[in-house]
Protein backbone atom coordinates (compact mmCIF):
# COMPACT_ATOMS: atom_id res chain seq x y z
CA UNK A 1 0.00 0.00 0.00
CA UNK A 2 1.40 3.39 -1.03
CA UNK A 3 1.46 5.98 1.75
CA UNK A 4 1.00 9.57 0.56
CA UNK A 5 3.03 11.96 2.75
CA UNK A 6 1.20 14.88 4.33
CA UNK A 7 2.11 18.51 3.76
CA UNK A 8 3.64 18.61 7.24
CA UNK A 9 5.86 15.62 6.42
CA UNK A 10 6.96 17.30 3.18
CA UNK A 11 7.85 20.50 5.04
CA UNK A 12 9.81 18.52 7.63
CA UNK A 13 11.62 16.70 4.85
CA UNK A 14 12.41 20.02 3.15
CA UNK A 15 13.89 21.45 6.35
CA UNK A 16 15.86 18.27 6.88
CA UNK A 17 17.27 18.41 3.33
CA UNK A 18 18.25 22.07 3.81
CA UNK A 19 19.98 21.21 7.08
CA UNK A 20 21.85 18.27 5.58
CA UNK A 21 22.77 20.29 2.47
CA UNK A 22 24.56 22.87 4.61
CA UNK A 23 26.07 20.33 7.03
CA UNK A 24 27.48 18.22 4.18
CA UNK A 25 29.19 21.26 2.62
CA UNK A 26 27.52 20.79 -0.75
CA UNK A 27 28.31 24.32 -1.94
CA UNK A 28 32.04 23.66 -1.44
CA UNK A 29 31.75 20.28 -3.16
CA UNK A 30 29.93 21.93 -6.08
CA UNK A 31 32.73 24.49 -6.43
CA UNK A 32 35.37 21.74 -6.44
CA UNK A 33 33.43 19.71 -9.02
CA UNK A 34 33.02 22.83 -11.19
CA UNK A 35 36.78 23.36 -11.15
CA UNK A 36 37.34 19.71 -12.03
CA UNK A 37 34.70 19.86 -14.77
CA UNK A 38 36.64 22.64 -16.47
CA UNK A 39 39.52 20.23 -17.05
CA UNK A 40 37.45 17.10 -17.66
CA UNK A 41 34.96 18.27 -20.31
CA UNK A 42 37.37 17.98 -23.24
CA UNK A 43 38.71 14.56 -22.09
CA UNK A 44 35.17 13.26 -21.63
CA UNK A 45 34.16 14.40 -25.12
CA UNK A 46 37.35 12.92 -26.57
CA UNK A 47 36.73 9.56 -24.88
CA UNK A 48 33.12 9.66 -26.09
CA UNK A 49 34.23 10.19 -29.69
CA UNK A 50 36.83 7.42 -29.38
CA UNK A 51 34.29 4.92 -28.03
CA UNK A 52 31.69 5.79 -30.66
CA UNK A 53 34.21 5.57 -33.49
CA UNK A 54 34.91 1.97 -32.42
CA UNK A 55 31.25 1.05 -33.07
CA UNK A 56 30.49 1.17 -36.81
CA UNK A 57 26.81 2.00 -36.29
CA UNK A 58 27.67 5.05 -34.15
CA UNK A 59 30.59 6.54 -36.06
CA UNK A 60 28.52 9.48 -37.31
CA UNK A 61 26.46 10.24 -34.21
CA UNK A 62 29.15 11.79 -32.00
CA UNK A 63 28.26 15.35 -33.00
CA UNK A 64 24.55 14.56 -32.66
CA UNK A 65 25.06 13.30 -29.11
CA UNK A 66 27.07 16.41 -28.23
CA UNK A 67 24.29 18.61 -29.61
CA UNK A 68 21.72 16.54 -27.71
CA UNK A 69 23.63 17.07 -24.46
CA UNK A 70 24.03 20.81 -24.99
CA UNK A 71 20.41 21.25 -26.09
CA UNK A 72 19.01 19.44 -23.05
CA UNK A 73 21.54 20.11 -20.30
CA UNK A 74 22.94 23.56 -21.13
CA UNK A 75 21.05 26.86 -21.53
CA UNK A 76 20.81 28.49 -24.92
CA UNK A 77 23.77 30.75 -24.08
CA UNK A 78 26.22 27.83 -24.36
CA UNK A 79 26.48 27.74 -28.17
CA UNK A 80 29.89 29.47 -28.21
CA UNK A 81 31.22 27.11 -25.55
CA UNK A 82 29.98 24.12 -27.54
CA UNK A 83 31.95 25.36 -30.54
CA UNK A 84 35.07 25.79 -28.40
CA UNK A 85 34.76 22.31 -26.89
CA UNK A 86 34.20 20.75 -30.31
CA UNK A 87 37.36 22.38 -31.61
CA UNK A 88 39.36 21.38 -28.53
CA UNK A 89 38.19 17.77 -28.68
CA UNK A 90 39.02 17.57 -32.38
CA UNK A 91 42.55 18.72 -31.60
CA UNK A 92 42.77 16.27 -28.70
CA UNK A 93 41.97 13.36 -31.00
CA UNK A 94 45.25 14.06 -32.79
CA UNK A 95 47.27 13.35 -29.64
CA UNK A 96 49.59 10.38 -29.25
CA UNK A 97 48.85 7.36 -27.11
CA UNK A 98 50.39 8.99 -24.03
CA UNK A 99 48.24 12.08 -24.51
CA UNK A 100 45.08 10.02 -24.91
CA UNK A 101 45.96 8.05 -21.76
CA UNK A 102 46.37 11.34 -19.86
CA UNK A 103 42.94 12.47 -21.05
CA UNK A 104 41.45 9.16 -19.93
CA UNK A 105 43.03 9.55 -16.48
CA UNK A 106 41.61 13.08 -16.23
CA UNK A 107 38.13 11.79 -17.07
CA UNK A 108 38.44 9.01 -14.46
CA UNK A 109 39.60 11.51 -11.81
CA UNK A 110 36.49 13.55 -12.55
CA UNK A 111 34.27 10.53 -11.94
CA UNK A 112 36.22 9.67 -8.78
CA UNK A 113 35.61 13.16 -7.38
CA UNK A 114 31.89 12.81 -8.11
CA UNK A 115 31.82 9.49 -6.24
CA UNK A 116 33.72 11.06 -3.33
CA UNK A 117 31.15 13.88 -3.06
CA UNK A 118 28.26 11.40 -3.16
CA UNK A 119 29.87 9.12 -0.57
CA UNK A 120 30.24 12.13 1.74
CA UNK A 121 26.49 12.74 1.46
CA UNK A 122 25.69 9.06 2.10
CA UNK A 123 28.23 9.01 4.97
CA UNK A 124 29.99 6.03 3.39
CA UNK A 125 33.24 5.38 5.25
CA UNK A 126 35.07 3.84 2.32
CA UNK A 127 35.28 4.56 -1.39
CA UNK A 128 35.28 1.69 -3.84
CA UNK A 129 38.44 -0.35 -4.15
CA UNK A 130 40.84 0.39 -6.98
CA UNK A 131 39.68 -2.41 -9.26
CA UNK A 132 35.98 -1.93 -8.46
CA UNK A 133 36.12 1.81 -9.07
CA UNK A 134 38.14 1.38 -12.27
CA UNK A 135 35.61 -1.10 -13.66
CA UNK A 136 32.71 1.21 -12.77
CA UNK A 137 34.35 4.28 -14.30
CA UNK A 138 35.38 2.37 -17.40
CA UNK A 139 31.83 1.04 -17.78
CA UNK A 140 30.48 4.60 -17.56
CA UNK A 141 33.01 5.93 -20.06
CA UNK A 142 32.60 3.03 -22.50
CA UNK A 143 28.92 2.12 -22.22
CA UNK A 144 27.58 5.62 -21.51
CA UNK A 145 28.10 6.99 -25.04
CA UNK A 146 26.72 3.78 -26.56
CA UNK A 147 23.54 3.96 -24.48
CA UNK A 148 23.15 7.64 -25.37
CA UNK A 149 23.53 6.68 -29.02
CA UNK A 150 20.84 4.02 -28.60
CA UNK A 151 18.56 6.55 -26.89
CA UNK A 152 19.15 8.96 -29.74
CA UNK A 153 18.24 6.27 -32.24
CA UNK A 154 15.08 5.39 -30.32
CA UNK A 155 14.11 9.08 -30.19
CA UNK A 156 14.59 9.37 -33.94
CA UNK A 157 12.46 6.26 -34.42
CA UNK A 158 9.71 7.70 -32.22
CA UNK A 159 9.76 10.93 -34.19
CA UNK A 160 9.34 8.97 -37.42
CA UNK A 161 6.44 7.07 -35.87
CA UNK A 162 4.78 10.33 -34.85
CA UNK A 163 4.97 11.48 -38.46
CA UNK A 164 3.52 8.20 -39.72
CA UNK A 165 0.64 8.19 -37.24
CA UNK A 166 0.04 11.92 -37.25
CA UNK A 167 -3.35 11.45 -38.87
CA UNK A 168 -4.38 8.91 -36.21
CA UNK A 169 -3.44 11.20 -33.30
CA UNK A 170 -6.63 13.25 -33.36
CA UNK A 171 -6.15 14.71 -29.85
CA UNK A 172 -2.59 15.85 -30.50
CA UNK A 173 -0.92 13.92 -27.70
CA UNK A 174 2.09 12.93 -29.83
CA UNK A 175 3.81 16.36 -29.84
CA UNK A 176 3.26 16.65 -26.09
CA UNK A 177 4.95 13.32 -25.47
CA UNK A 178 7.88 14.28 -27.68
CA UNK A 179 8.16 17.55 -25.78
CA UNK A 180 8.55 15.50 -22.59
CA UNK A 181 11.47 13.51 -24.01
CA UNK A 182 14.20 15.92 -22.75
CA UNK A 183 12.72 15.86 -19.26
CA UNK A 184 12.44 12.06 -19.26
CA UNK A 185 16.01 11.75 -20.56
CA UNK A 186 17.28 14.08 -17.83
CA UNK A 187 15.27 12.19 -15.19
CA UNK A 188 16.73 8.88 -16.33
CA UNK A 189 20.26 10.30 -16.19
CA UNK A 190 19.84 11.64 -12.65
CA UNK A 191 18.16 8.42 -11.48
CA UNK A 192 21.08 6.37 -12.80
CA UNK A 193 23.60 8.70 -11.13
CA UNK A 194 21.86 8.56 -7.75
CA UNK A 195 21.49 4.77 -7.88
CA UNK A 196 24.94 3.81 -9.19
CA UNK A 197 27.49 6.33 -7.93
CA UNK A 198 27.32 6.03 -4.08
CA UNK A 199 29.29 3.13 -2.64
CA UNK A 200 26.21 1.69 -0.96
CA UNK A 201 22.85 0.30 -1.94
CA UNK A 202 20.38 3.03 -2.89
CA UNK A 203 16.73 1.94 -3.30
CA UNK A 204 15.79 2.43 -6.95
CA UNK A 205 12.44 3.89 -5.87
CA UNK A 206 14.16 6.65 -3.92
CA UNK A 207 16.63 7.26 -6.76
CA UNK A 208 13.70 7.56 -9.19
CA UNK A 209 11.86 10.06 -6.96
CA UNK A 210 15.03 12.10 -6.58
CA UNK A 211 15.72 11.88 -10.31
CA UNK A 212 12.27 13.15 -11.27
CA UNK A 213 12.37 16.05 -8.78
CA UNK A 214 15.97 16.98 -9.63
CA UNK A 215 15.21 16.93 -13.36
CA UNK A 216 12.21 19.21 -12.82
CA UNK A 217 14.29 21.69 -10.80
CA UNK A 218 17.05 21.42 -13.40
CA UNK A 219 14.70 22.25 -16.28
CA UNK A 220 13.20 25.20 -14.37
CA UNK A 221 16.67 26.49 -13.48
CA UNK A 222 17.77 26.18 -17.11
CA UNK A 223 14.81 28.23 -18.33
CA UNK A 224 15.30 30.81 -15.57
CA UNK A 225 19.04 31.08 -16.24
CA UNK A 226 18.46 31.55 -19.96
CA UNK A 227 15.80 34.20 -19.32
CA UNK A 228 18.00 36.17 -16.92
CA UNK A 229 21.06 36.09 -19.16
CA UNK A 230 19.02 36.99 -22.26
CA UNK A 231 17.59 40.07 -20.54
CA UNK A 232 20.86 41.44 -19.16
CA UNK A 233 23.69 43.38 -20.78
CA UNK A 234 26.36 40.69 -20.47
CA UNK A 235 26.30 39.86 -24.16
CA UNK A 236 26.32 43.52 -25.18
CA UNK A 237 29.27 44.44 -22.96
CA UNK A 238 31.46 41.34 -23.19
CA UNK A 239 30.29 39.78 -26.46
CA UNK A 240 31.32 36.16 -27.00
CA UNK A 241 33.81 36.43 -24.12
CA UNK A 242 30.85 36.33 -21.71
CA UNK A 243 30.08 32.74 -22.77
CA UNK A 244 32.92 31.19 -20.75
CA UNK A 245 32.18 32.67 -17.27
CA UNK A 246 28.45 32.20 -17.83
CA UNK A 247 29.05 28.58 -18.78
CA UNK A 248 31.13 28.02 -15.63
CA UNK A 249 28.39 29.65 -13.56
CA UNK A 250 25.88 27.26 -15.10
CA UNK A 251 28.11 24.27 -14.34
CA UNK A 252 28.30 25.43 -10.72
CA UNK A 253 24.52 25.83 -10.50
CA UNK A 254 24.11 22.41 -12.10
CA UNK A 255 26.32 20.76 -9.49
CA UNK A 256 24.43 22.56 -6.73
CA UNK A 257 21.20 21.07 -8.09
CA UNK A 258 22.68 17.58 -8.54
CA UNK A 259 24.11 17.50 -5.01
CA UNK A 260 20.81 18.80 -3.62
CA UNK A 261 19.10 15.93 -5.42
CA UNK A 262 21.58 13.49 -3.88
CA UNK A 263 20.85 14.91 -0.41
CA UNK A 264 17.13 14.50 -1.13
CA UNK A 265 17.54 10.84 -2.15
CA UNK A 266 19.56 10.13 0.98
CA UNK A 267 17.03 12.02 3.10
CA UNK A 268 14.15 9.95 1.75
CA UNK A 269 15.97 6.84 2.96
CA UNK A 270 17.04 8.24 6.31
CA UNK A 271 14.14 10.50 7.26
CA UNK A 272 11.68 7.77 8.17
CA UNK A 273 12.57 7.94 11.86
CA UNK A 274 11.28 11.05 13.64
CA UNK A 275 11.01 9.51 17.11
CA UNK A 276 14.59 8.42 17.72
CA UNK A 277 15.37 11.67 19.58
CA UNK A 278 13.38 10.17 22.47
CA UNK A 279 16.17 7.63 22.97
CA UNK A 280 19.62 8.39 24.35
CA UNK A 281 22.84 7.44 22.57
CA UNK A 282 23.39 4.61 25.06
CA UNK A 283 19.96 3.12 24.36
CA UNK A 284 20.45 3.44 20.60
CA UNK A 285 23.93 1.90 20.76
CA UNK A 286 22.79 -1.03 22.89
CA UNK A 287 19.89 -1.63 20.52
CA UNK A 288 22.19 -1.62 17.48
CA UNK A 289 24.62 -4.03 19.15
CA UNK A 290 21.76 -6.33 20.15
CA UNK A 291 20.47 -6.36 16.57
CA UNK A 292 23.97 -7.15 15.26
CA UNK A 293 24.31 -9.92 17.84
CA UNK A 294 20.96 -11.48 16.88
CA UNK A 295 21.88 -11.39 13.18
CA UNK A 296 25.30 -12.83 14.01
CA UNK A 297 23.61 -15.83 15.65
CA UNK A 298 21.66 -16.34 12.42
CA UNK A 299 24.69 -15.88 10.17
CA UNK A 300 23.19 -12.74 8.61
CA UNK A 301 24.25 -9.15 8.07
CA UNK A 302 22.47 -5.89 8.89
CA UNK A 303 22.00 -3.42 6.06
CA UNK A 304 22.18 0.32 6.56
CA UNK A 305 18.91 0.62 4.68
CA UNK A 306 17.28 -1.66 7.28
CA UNK A 307 18.59 0.47 10.15
CA UNK A 308 17.39 3.71 8.58
CA UNK A 309 13.99 2.54 7.34
CA UNK A 310 12.61 -0.50 9.15
CA UNK A 311 10.98 -0.40 12.61
CA UNK A 312 13.69 -2.50 14.27
CA UNK A 313 14.10 -0.36 17.41
CA UNK A 314 11.75 -2.03 19.92
CA UNK A 315 9.74 -3.08 16.83
CA UNK A 316 8.45 0.48 16.49
CA UNK A 317 11.15 2.88 15.32
CA UNK A 318 14.22 3.19 13.12
CA UNK A 319 17.26 5.44 13.47
CA UNK A 320 17.85 8.66 11.56
CA UNK A 321 20.98 9.17 9.46
CA UNK A 322 22.08 11.99 11.78
CA UNK A 323 22.05 9.66 14.77
CA UNK A 324 23.41 6.61 12.96
CA UNK A 325 26.60 8.15 11.54
CA UNK A 326 28.35 9.14 14.82
CA UNK A 327 27.21 5.97 16.59
CA UNK A 328 28.46 3.88 13.68
CA UNK A 329 31.87 5.56 13.90
CA UNK A 330 32.10 4.79 17.62
CA UNK A 331 31.17 1.16 17.02
CA UNK A 332 33.88 0.94 14.37
CA UNK A 333 36.36 2.51 16.81
CA UNK A 334 35.50 -0.04 19.48
CA UNK A 335 35.77 -2.96 17.06
CA UNK A 336 32.09 -3.81 17.52
CA UNK A 337 31.19 -3.18 13.89
CA UNK A 338 32.69 -4.42 10.65
CA UNK A 339 31.77 -3.87 7.02
CA UNK A 340 30.61 -7.03 5.25
CA UNK A 341 30.02 -5.42 1.86
CA UNK A 342 28.66 -2.14 0.53
CA UNK A 343 26.00 -0.95 2.96
CA UNK A 344 25.99 -4.14 5.08
CA UNK A 345 27.47 -4.67 8.54
CA UNK A 346 28.30 -7.53 10.89
CA UNK A 347 29.26 -7.82 14.56
CA UNK A 348 32.97 -7.16 14.90
CA UNK A 349 33.90 -8.97 18.13
CA UNK A 350 32.83 -11.59 20.67
CA UNK A 351 30.44 -9.98 23.15
CA UNK A 352 31.40 -12.52 25.84
CA UNK A 353 34.53 -10.42 26.33
CA UNK A 354 32.87 -7.01 26.07
CA UNK A 355 31.03 -5.64 29.10
CA UNK A 356 28.67 -2.79 29.76
CA UNK A 357 31.53 -0.94 31.43
CA UNK A 358 33.60 -1.30 28.25
CA UNK A 359 30.71 0.18 26.30
CA UNK A 360 30.41 3.13 28.70
CA UNK A 361 34.11 3.85 28.27
CA UNK A 362 33.68 3.65 24.50
CA UNK A 363 30.81 6.13 24.57
CA UNK A 364 33.05 8.55 26.44
CA UNK A 365 30.42 10.06 28.74
CA UNK A 366 28.06 9.22 31.55
CA UNK A 367 25.27 7.11 30.07
CA UNK A 368 21.66 8.17 29.82
CA UNK A 369 18.94 5.55 29.78
CA UNK A 370 15.83 7.46 28.78
CA UNK A 371 13.58 5.43 26.50
CA UNK A 372 11.05 8.16 25.80
CA UNK A 373 8.12 5.80 26.19
CA UNK A 374 6.10 3.94 28.81
CA UNK A 375 5.44 1.08 26.39
CA UNK A 376 6.75 -2.42 27.26
CA UNK A 377 10.44 -2.87 26.47
CA UNK A 378 12.44 -6.06 25.75
CA UNK A 379 13.80 -7.95 28.72
CA UNK A 380 17.42 -7.34 27.70
CA UNK A 381 16.73 -3.60 27.70
CA UNK A 382 15.44 -3.67 31.27
CA UNK A 383 18.50 -5.67 32.34
CA UNK A 384 20.84 -3.09 30.84
CA UNK A 385 18.97 -0.13 32.33
CA UNK A 386 18.84 -1.73 35.78
CA UNK A 387 22.57 -2.36 35.83
CA UNK A 388 23.41 1.13 34.61
CA UNK A 389 21.21 2.71 37.27
CA UNK A 390 22.75 0.53 39.98
CA UNK A 391 26.22 1.58 38.82
CA UNK A 392 25.28 5.21 39.11
CA UNK A 393 24.36 4.72 42.73
CA UNK A 394 27.01 2.25 43.83
CA UNK A 395 30.16 1.13 42.05
CA UNK A 396 31.14 0.35 38.50
CA UNK A 397 31.97 -3.27 39.20
CA UNK A 398 28.36 -4.23 38.60
CA UNK A 399 28.80 -3.34 34.94
CA UNK A 400 31.31 -6.11 34.29
CA UNK A 401 28.60 -8.32 32.81
CA UNK A 402 29.27 -9.38 29.20
CA UNK A 403 26.74 -8.02 26.72
CA UNK A 404 26.20 -11.50 25.32
CA UNK A 405 24.87 -12.61 28.70
CA UNK A 406 22.43 -9.69 28.78
CA UNK A 407 21.20 -10.35 25.26
CA UNK A 408 20.66 -14.10 25.83
CA UNK A 409 17.12 -15.45 26.25
CA UNK A 410 15.45 -12.32 24.91
CA UNK A 411 12.06 -13.84 24.19
CA UNK A 412 10.10 -11.91 26.78
CA UNK A 413 9.29 -8.26 27.27
CA UNK A 414 9.68 -6.46 30.55
How does this model look, in words?
The protein has helices at 7-23, 26-53, 62-73, 79-92, 97-121, 130-164, 173-196, 204-230, 234-238, 243-270, 281-297, 304-309, 321-333, 356-363, 379-393, 403-407, and strands at 302-303, 337-341, 344-347. By secondary structure, the protein is an all-alpha fold. A 3-stranded antiparallel sheet has the order 1-3-2. β2 (337-341) and β3 form a beta hairpin. It is elongated and about 80 Å long.
Structural class call reads mainly alpha
Query: What proportion of the residues form beta strands (DSSP E)?
Result: under 5%
The helix fraction, in percent, is: 55-70%
Alpha-carbon Rg, integer: 27 Å
What is the domain total for the residues?
2
Features:
single chain; 414 residues; mainly alpha; Arc Repressor Mutant, subunit A; 2 domains; three-stranded antiparallel β-sheet; 3 strands; 67% helix; elongated
Write a brief caption for the model.
The protein is mostly helical. It has helices at about 5-25, 25-55, 60-75, 80-90, 95-120, 130-165, 175-195, 205-230, 235-240, 245-270, 280-295, 305-310, 320-335, 355-365, 380-395, 405, and strands at about 300-305, 335-340, 345. It has 16 helices and three strands.
